[in-house]
């Protein structure tokens, strides 16, 4: 009031501003901004819970299980209600806090009932976790004294300040949990198919279903490893892949270097035409390729495949290498010229050693493309003697009945070199050799 | 040591732009010449033509009375320091220093003993003895600069070329390296061509400065002579007025109290 009286004498526009300052409570930013970290995290979590409930609902609809559809829709509605209540939860809203807790209890009950009533395979277990755990979390966090205090609106400025500083450490922990949950889902998504293949490879007989790792046998592996045709296919694949890598690099490195460094007539058109080829699906070129190979007498030879693969992998290799050569400063070449190199020596002694990471990546790329390619190999090399591994693997399914066990074992063996290559090349893939040569 | 001469040297790019026009310039044996001018004046092009990194459109460049127009850079007996240092990132410092020696052909070829002796000599001269096994990216900016200098000097070039070698360094290091470069020149007495756009750098380091603008040589002579007798209004504006301004600023900052 004193303030107000004092300011009166200034009059006019000053009075308005003085009045508004005087009528506001002292700046209590802490109380205004403080939201317990638990509430914040739950608000972030529940949209995900709703989404996953929706996914479960879809799964049940696909299964056509009407009881589960009903309980799952209930579950979905309940989680949406919790999400809405959480967003309304605020200071002095004690009844909303109580409502959230009781509805979460309902959700927990529903999810347990649903789990007990339905089939109990892995995916049901996962769904139950996603419906029950968040509800448990809500009950636990919202009933905490610190949240209760906040929700009942009785907190002081001091407690709000303490809460803010506590939020820092708590929200870091919550963030960590979130990240791990998300990453574990990603890991499971990637690993499950592989686990499945391992299971099929290790199970006796040729069944695709059944319990995980019920009985373990190596009969499929020994069968595959002792079959002569597997080794013939492996030999073919190795010849074709290494041939493709060498031929591809021998063509792509000079081409990439030339595109990167030299200006010549038609350079832009040439680079664009490289991309143009990539715009069409492989099937389009299949027939013309076949005719060319037939005319050249290259059907059922490794050389034919090497040529075809090199040509198809070339555009991407050239563009990748050009991109890397572009980052090697021109001054390095000039310095080497002053040091007495000729153009060839500059390339072999400076540019190529510097580009090893890029060359390694490109080599890996063309090797993998050739190692995994199926369509061209299937079309060109029709005699079993000249099958590559992917074609040979596919023939296990069609010709000698449904040999799923052998197929799975062979696919694991086939992916082994790829895994080894990645481990070996990893160092190159991440090494940035170019840093530090020029100022930086 | 040798002299360098430009006779009616012209550089015209394919798009018709003339970077250097009718340049006539003699550089004496053992002289420290600075090419000075604003950016785009053709000073770097001139240096790069002398190094053999750019073709000469017409005219003649000679080093020690031998025409070098069509010689590759490595055959010209030059050493060059680049603005960006251009050290080979995949080689150790000692390999960076010795790369030029190992590239030598015929009679000039050095034995491994000679090479390692030269590496040690150069490293000691530049205070790099402890860094020989490191890679360029492990060194500080100043050290990289020294390696770049050492790589140019180790072959005992007949002409040393420097293209704005100090522009990537901070002010203190720049001052220090300026003194050191001048000291090395006085010691080794090699003909040196130094490109810069910094008037103070040019005035303090040069025996003679040659000022270029828009591809034309404006004036050349000992620094103080050019400063005192500017040949035209460009020199007056670019060199004299700029230096006077610095002097005035310094005076107004420090001189006021004494008066």
What can be said about this structure in brief?
The complex is a heterodimer of chains A (440) and B (259). By secondary structure, chain A is an all-alpha fold.
Q: Which descriptors would you attach to this protein?
A:
heterodimer, A: 440 residues, mainly alpha, MetI-like fold, B: 259 residues, alpha/beta, Rossmann fold, 2 domains, 6-stranded mixed sheet
List the helices and strands and how they pair.
The complex is a heterodimer of chains A (440) and B (259).
Chain A: H1 2-8, H2 12-23, H3 29-33, H4 37-63, H5 66-88, H6 94-117, H7 122-142, H8 145-151, H9 157-202, H10 219-226, H11 228-261, H12 267-278, H13 282-296, H14 302-327, H15 330-338, H16 343-354, H17 356-372, H18 375-380, H19 389-398, H20 404-430
Chain B: E1 4-12, E2 18-27, E3 32-36, H1 43-51, E4 58-63, E5 66-67, E6 78-81, H2 93-102, H3 112-126, H4 141-153, E7 159-163, H5 171-188, E8 191-196, H6 199-205, E9 208-213, E10 216-221, H7 223-228, H8 233-258
Parallel strand pairs in B: 3-8, 3-9, 6-7, 7-8
Antiparallel strand pairs in B: 1-2, 1-4, 4-5, 9-10
Helix pairs in contact in B: 2-3, 2-4
The DSSP helix count of chain A reads 20
Shape of chain A: flat
What's the CATH class of the largest domain in chain A, please?
A: Mainly Alpha
Poorly predicted sequence stretches spanning 5 or more consecutive residues of chain B: none
Named CATH topology of the largest domain in chain B: Rossmann fold
Give the % helix of chain B: 40-55%
Strand content of chain B: 15-25%
Describe this entry's structure for a reader:
The complex is a heterodimer of chains A (440) and B (259). Chain A is 79% helix and 0% strand. Chain A has 440 residues and is mainly α. Chain A has 2 domains: 34-194; 220-430, MetI-like (MetI-like fold), CATH 1.10.3720.10. In chain A, helix 4 (37-63) runs antiparallel to helix 7 (122-142) and helix 15 (330-338) packs across helix 16 (343-354). Residues 1-22 and 432-440 of chain A have low confidence and may be disordered. Chain B is α/β, with parallel strands linked by helices. Chain B folds into 2 domains: 4-77 and 157-258, 3-Layer(aba) Sandwich (Rossmann fold), CATH 3.40.50.300; 88-155, no CATH class. Helices cover 40% and strands 23% of the residues of chain B. In chain B, helix 5 (171-188) links the parallel strand 7 and strand 8 (191-196). In chain B, helix 2 (93-102) packs across helix 3 (112-126) and helix 2 runs parallel beside helix 4 (141-153). The longest helix of chain B has 26 residues, at 233-258. The A-B interface holds A 329, 331-332, 334-342, 345, 350, 353-354, 433-439 and B 51-53, 72-75, 78-80, 82-90, 99-100, 103-105, 135-139, 141, 144, 151-152, 168.
């Amino acid at each position: 009031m004193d303030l107000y009286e004092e300011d009166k004498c200034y009059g006019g526009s000053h009075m308005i501003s003085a009045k508004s300052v005087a009528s506001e409570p002292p700046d209590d930013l802490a109380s205004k901004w403080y939201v317990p970290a638990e509430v914040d995290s739950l608000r972030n979590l529940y949209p995900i819970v709703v989404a996953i409930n929706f996914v479960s609902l879809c799964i049940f609809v696909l299964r056509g299980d009407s009881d589960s559809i009903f309980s799952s829709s209930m579950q979905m509605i309940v989680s949406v209600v919790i999400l809405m209540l959480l967003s309304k939860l605020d200071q002095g809203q004690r009844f909303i806090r109580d409502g959230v807790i009781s509805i979460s209890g309902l959700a927990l009950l529903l999810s347990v009932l649903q789990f007990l009533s339905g089939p109990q395979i892995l995916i049901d277990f996962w769904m139950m976790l996603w419906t029950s755990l968040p509800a448990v979390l809500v009950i636990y966090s919202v009933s905490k004294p610190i949240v209760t205090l906040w929700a009942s609106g009785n907190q002081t400025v001091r407690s709000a300040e303490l809460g803010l500083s506590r939020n820092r450490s708590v929200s870091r922990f919550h963030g960590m949990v979130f990240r791990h949950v998300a990453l574990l889902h990603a890991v499971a998504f990637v690993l499950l198919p592989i686990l499945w293949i391992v299971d099929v490879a290790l199970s006796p007989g040729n069944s695709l279903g059944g319990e995980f790792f019920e009985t373990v046998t190596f009969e499929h592996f020994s069968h595959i490893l002792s079959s002569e045709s597997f080794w013939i296919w492996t030999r073919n694949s190795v010849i074709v892949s290494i041939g493709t890598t060498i031929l591809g690099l021998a063509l792509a490195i000079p081409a990439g270097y030339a595109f990167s460094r030299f200006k010549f007539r038609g350079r832009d058109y040439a680079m664009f035409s490289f991309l143009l080829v990539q715009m069409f699906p492989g099937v389009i070129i299949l027939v013309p390729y076949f005719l060319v190979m037939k005319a050249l007498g290259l059907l059922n030879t490794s050389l034919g495949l090497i040529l075809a693969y090199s040509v198809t992998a070339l555009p991407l290799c050239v563009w990748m290498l050009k991109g890397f050569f572009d980052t090697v400063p021109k001054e390095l070449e000039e310095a080497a010229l002053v040091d007495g190199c000729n153009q060839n020596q500059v390339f072999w002694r400076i540019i190529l050693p510097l580009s090893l990471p890029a060359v390694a990546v490109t080599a890996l790329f063309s090797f993998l493309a050739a190692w995994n390619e199926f369509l061209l190999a299937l079309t060109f090399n029709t005699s079993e003697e000249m099958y590559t591994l992917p074609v040979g693997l596919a023939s296990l399914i069609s010709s000698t009945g449904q040999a799923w066990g052998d197929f799975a074992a062979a696919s694991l063996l086939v992916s082994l070199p790829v895994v080894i290559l990645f481990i070996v090349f990893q160092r190159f893939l991440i090494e940035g050799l170019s840093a530090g040569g020029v100022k930086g | 040591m040798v002299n360098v001469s430009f006779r009616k040297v012209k550089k015209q790019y394919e798009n018709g732009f003339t970077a250097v026009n009718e340049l006539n310039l003699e550089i004496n044996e053992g002289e420290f010449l600075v090419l000075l001018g604003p950016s785009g004046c053709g000073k770097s092009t001139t240096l790069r033509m002398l190094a053999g990194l750019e073709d000469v459109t017409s005219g003649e460049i000679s080093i020690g009375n031998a025409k070098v127009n069509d010689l590759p850079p490595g055959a010209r007996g030059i050493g060059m320091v680049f603005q960006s240092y251009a050290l080979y990132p995949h080689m150790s410092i000692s390999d960076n220093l010795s790369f030029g020696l190992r590239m030598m052909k015929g009679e000039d070829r050095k034995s491994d003993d000679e090479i390692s002796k030269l590496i040690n000599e150069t490293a000691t001269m530049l205070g790099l003895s402890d860094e020989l096994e490191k890679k360029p990216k492990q060194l500080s900016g100043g050290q990289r600069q020294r390696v770049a200098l050492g790589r140019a000097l180790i072959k005992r070039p007949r002409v040393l070329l420097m293209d704005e070698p100090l522009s990537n360094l901070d002010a203190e290091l720049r001052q220090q390296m300026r003194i050191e470069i001048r000291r090395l020149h006085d010691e080794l007495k090699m003909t040196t061509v130094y490109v810069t756009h910094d008037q103070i750098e040019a005035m303090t380091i040069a025996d003679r400065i040659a000022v270029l603008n828009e591809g034309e040589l404006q004036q050349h002579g000992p620094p103080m002579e050019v400063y005192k007798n500017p040949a035209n209004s460009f020199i007056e504006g670019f060199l004299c007025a700029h230096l006077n301004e610095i002097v005035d600023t310094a005076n107004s900052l420090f001189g006021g109290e004494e008066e």
